[in-house]
What we know:
two-stranded antiparallel sheet, elongated
Amino acid sequence: MLAAAAGPAHAGDLFKCGTTFQDRPCADRAVQQRFSLTQGEFAIQQVNPDTDRDCARVAADAMGWWQRMAAGETKQRLNAEIQARPIERQQKSLLRDVLNVLGEMRGQPVEVRSQLESRCMAYKRNHGYATEREVARSTDADVWRAEAEARRAEAEARQAEARARFWR
């Protein structure tokens, strides 16, 4: 029920509901399994129907931290873990930002995950990052252009061959 209230699925989406497949979110599941257009498999576990694979992954990963904080672990301890990671400073800064957001979130786990997915998608749109659907559309457009160019080149080659036969 939560998935249906979260918003409509996009045209062309395919959801796996147990052993059946459908073009809308599963009514009986809070976390949806959606076909990834860029990976070619049911690789996305998401709460909101419009979440792309990157934001679904980030939200799922962040839920571990949220659950630890909800169980009483301090933000300082989690910050220390982030600092100890062998990653770039910018990545550490982003993870600390996520941790700060998590500290503000309240509700049931599925509600928190929904909020995380929504915030991530808004961040991507507001900062000009391509969503999975945009990448898939641009890839489809690139394939279409390449196929059209190949057909045009083939037609030109046939015309040149016909002209050459005509002038023999």
